[in-house]
Design brief:
With about 325 residues, the protein is of the alpha/beta class. The strands form 4 sheets. Strands 9-14-13-10-15 form a 5-stranded mixed β-barrel, surrounded by 4 helices. Strands 1-2-3 form a 3-stranded antiparallel beta sheet, with no helix packed on it. The two termini are about 25 Å apart.
Amino acid sequence: MEENVFCECKRWNYGPHYNIIKDKSMQKCPLCSITRNLDGTIILRNKNISSSSNDFLYHLGLGTSSNNLKEMFGDVKFVCMGGTPHRMEAFARHLIKILDRNDELIDLTGCAKRYSMFKVGPVIAVNHGMGYSSCTILLHEVIKLMFHAKCKDPIFIRLGTSGGIGVEPGTVVVSSGGVDARLRDCYEIPIAGKLSQKLCRTDFDLIENLKSVVTPSDHFKVITGKTMAATDFYEEQGRLDGAFCGITETEKLDYLKKLYEGGVRNIEMESVPFFAYTHYAGIKAADVCVTLIDRLKGDQVITPKSKLSEFENYPQEIVGRFIKKQLEQFD
């Protein structure tokens, strides 16, 4: 079987255990419930949307009745997201430069004013805010956007900053998977009062392809490791410098060492829902974050602002090179 298929138990795999289902436009692994279309388009796992005459993506200011989403976004191959509008606009300008394009940057969310989204050729750069809730709102609407636009095999990449565990500031972590503060690799959310879990999964080929663009001349280190996502910046991350603190320095270090022993190399606030939602939607995804601090050595980021700005460029360099290389292969 030649087509890539998304599968919860085997991830992206060509294995013989896949069955053709329905009208042979989809494939499904009998060991799990994840399906996707053979032409690469997304299967939206919500029947309510397909029966609706209009789907308005409220926080993006776009809708199926008010916009021709296929014409606007049908060519998208990469969706890159990060915390702030400024960071994603800077990344979009970086893409214009390295891809040698002359796109005019326009915030495509218009008057919605919740997020900012820019398009450079087949690449979307959009900010997701900070934390689980803000990130999941964006993911719901961008995944629906890819569905309505009939995008084929879109790749989602998150770029960001993080706190390192046992790694030097300025190290880039290409995440091998997301875990929560209890080291569980799933996103747990109450739906209609009942707890539901979605597994966090990434794509190992995508990780290797991202790492392949790193060169010996790079002045930063790139590693892989698990990423812990917290719902809080202070207490859940074991910080001692918040408005409240109920743990000792020893308890903090014991916890961080436990995370390190569990394979975690950085902490941020979005990887768990990011990996869970993209996996559930059948989308290849990667998380590329630079560390600003080694949490084993302290809690507060005291690195000079000029150095932090330099650090923030490292994920952009890697992801930009990866996208350029992928687009050259498409040509």
